[in-house]
């Protein structure tokens, strides 16, 4: 037994020395700490593979943070993944039909408040949720927006079902864990008789058969309002006067480890063709001359600023104004 431990100890040292000469004991210490904090375990082979990826991610985070950035990065539950793996598990894969999202939002002429946050205007925003290994961001953007518009209209904040959208909204160009768009999900809810609650139709995070029971619907859509493509002022008008707004944008590798501050990137593109993630704008503001949106994500509360992020506003950053919409609730 002792011999075995000794040999496997030597083997793992050799493994490090020959295959991955880049780790220091300090790197391994950080990895093991992160593993414990995130409840991760691997077999030996996977351990070195993940240590390698983790170490690269960690160095990148340290480099980024050392450079007085507009936003900081940090370790999170995704730190043992390459961006290719992250993309495959969590983002929209193929271009969605954003360009079908034509205008309809009636914009008024300001003036607008400098700062808006629907989380503090009243009980209008539900807690941050977690999508898990499923490209279902579009369902969380959809429920988040409908939860808020319904609460603003009725005074009652309910949590609504993402799983119903994953299982049932295919006829409107949605594809469950393989993607979709909030505007198309609002259309589904409008034409198919409403959306059940989270408790009534709980989240599973994988594709399944539709079990919608119309008599148990808890929220309804009277109409879908699309904001004109690239009209970021239209989004501002809607968020300032009416309610939170669903939007899509392009996530690139640097975004995955966002921790705090105002995100801005030169790597992402800004058109309808490249958007790969949908989220919810719940407010906006300005800090030291930089305008920003306050955005609710669906990657749990340990990610970013308690599950939220700030992203630069006013420049169609990462295509965030390519494809935004909100529903009018039927109450
Ligand atoms: C876009 O719309 C077309 C026509 O409705 C449809 O065939 C196609 O599957 C849609 N693409 C996606 C990704 O939903
Ligand atoms: C809103 O956009 C969706 C597609 O994203 C489209 O199907 C729908 O017709 C649009 N609605 C309006 C009122 O333009
Ligand atoms: C995208 O970015 C380019 C380069 O900054 C700019 O010229 C273009 O107007 C932007 N397009 C949109 C739709 O925002």
Automatic annotation (TrEMBL):
GO MF, one example: cysteine-type endopeptidase activity
Matching PROSITE patterns: THIOL_PROTEASE_ASN (PS00640), THIOL_PROTEASE_CYS (PS00139), THIOL_PROTEASE_HIS (PS00639)
Keywords assigned by UniProt, alphabetized: Disulfide bond, Glycoprotein, Hydrolase, Lysosome, Protease, Signal, Thiol protease, Zymogen
Domain Peptidase C1A papain C-terminal span(s) in chain numbering: 112-328
Signal sequence coordinates: 1-19
Segments traversing the membrane: none
Keyword Protease: yes
Protein name: Pro-cathepsin H
UniProt organism field: Alosa alosa
